[in-house]
């Protein structure tokens, strides 16, 4: 089942260097829980790229495999190097996973509560899923 196109614009900072990175990709759900993504080079900051997501229920938990490859179409200064850039993008991906997990937990908790319990919870401080480490 096709999802369509995805788009992400991000600003990557490594020391004094700043990169604006644009990514556009075609997203396809090949079967339930399996998503394949192919970068559209003409609209992206990458010469090529692909990703797979496998999402499987494991009892009360969810198992997620995410694997991606991107070939940049922009200059990476030698002082930064591929390794530092890869680590930066990997950390950003992990932060995204933490935000997704936080939002999923908030939705689960909301769905498990009823009546006055829910009203009391809503009046308390909300979960911070933008900065889940806070």
CATH architecture: 2-Layer Sandwich
- Biggest sheet, in brief? 5 strands, antiparallel
CATH uppermost class: Alpha Beta
Alpha carbon gyration radius: 18 Å
Mean pLDDT: 77
Q: How would you sum up the global shape?
A: globular
CATH homologous superfamily (4th level) name: START domain
Count of beta strands: 5
Strand content: 35-45%
**How many independent structural domains?**
1
Kindly report how far apart the N and C termini lie. 37 Å
**Helix run count:** 2
Please give a handful of descriptors for the protein shown.
alpha+beta; five-stranded antiparallel beta sheet; 5 strands; 44% strand; 134 residues; Alpha-D-Glucose-1,6-Bisphosphate, Chain A, domain 4
Topology, element by element:
Blueprint: E1 2-14, E2 17-31, E3 34-39, E4 46-58, E5 61-72, H1 81-112, H2 115-123
Antiparallel strand pairs: 1-2, 2-3, 3-4, 4-5
What can be said about this structure in brief?
The protein has 134 residues and is an alpha+beta fold. Helices cover 31% and strands 44% of the residues.
3D architecture notes:
The protein is α+β, with helices and mostly antiparallel strands. Helix content is 31%, strand content 44%. The protein has 2 helices and 5 strands, in the order βββββαα. It has a 5-stranded antiparallel β-sheet. A hairpin with a 2-residue loop joins β2 (17-31) and β3. The longest helix has 32 residues, at 81-112.
């Amino acid at each position: 089942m096709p999802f369509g196109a995805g788009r992400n614009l991000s600003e990557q900072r490594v020391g004094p260097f700043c990169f604006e990175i644009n990514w556009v990709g075609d997203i396809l759900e090949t079967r339930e829980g399996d998503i394949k993504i192919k970068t559209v080079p003409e609209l992206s900051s990458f010469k090529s790229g692909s990703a797979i997501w496998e999402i499987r229920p494991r009892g009360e938990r969810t198992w997620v495999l995410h694997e991606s490859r991107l070939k940049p179409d922009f200059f990476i200064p030698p002082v930064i190097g591929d390794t530092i850039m890869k680590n930066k993008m990997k950390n950003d991906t992990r932060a995204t996973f933490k935000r997704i997990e936080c939002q999923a937990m908030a939705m689960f908790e909301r769905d498990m509560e009823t009546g006055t319990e829910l009203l009391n919870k809503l009046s308390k401080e909300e979960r911070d899923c933008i900065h889940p480490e806070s």
